[in-house]
Amino acid sequence: MATYSATDYDKVPVPSHGLANNCKALFFEVACSAAPATTDTINFGYVPAGARVVMAVLESTDMDTNGAPTLTIDVGDASDTNRIFAASTVGQAGTLSTAIATAGAGYSYTDKTLITGVAAANAATGAAGTLYLTLFYVVEGSAS
User: Fold this and answer.
1) What are the residue ranges spanned by the domains of the chain?
2) Count of CB atoms within 10 A of residue 10's CB?
3) 3-state SS record for 80-96
4) Are the CB atoms for 71 and 130 separated by under 8 Å?
5) pLDDT in tens, 92-141
6) Cα dist from 142 to 4, 18, 21, 121, whole Å
7) What is the CATH number of domain 22-139?
8) Which residues, at least 6 apart from 79, have a Cβ–Cβ distance to it below 8 Å?
9) DSSP one-letter code for 108
């Protein structure tokens, strides 16, 4: 069982500039020495208290090199492991997805929360690679 963590995943970044309507973005990069397995933990990083998720992007290098790949990735938190992405296939061929799970769209975190990932299904032929997660959010009650 392995744990893969983004660099400085344990820090809550404080963005100095926002996008339109006080929208902020967090970018996490996690290098995995092997394809994530269902017993592994992926620590992306923390979102601040009051963060309401408005969009997410999950990207991966090819971490399942089999001709019939099976790797799927869940992204969420301790309360709902697939709140943001459920069984995403981005690791099967090195692709990108914005298909955020319904439970994650508009979800508001009341406390500082660690965003984690796990393989929902193991790779048929695993390979080392990198996962990238970008979360776009607004902070409730915050001026731009």
Assistant:
1) 22-139
2) 10
3) CCCCCEEEECHHHCCCE
4) no
5) 999 999 999 999 999 999 999 999 999 999 999 999 999 999 999 998 66
6) 32, 11, 10, 39
7) 2.60.120
8) none
9) B
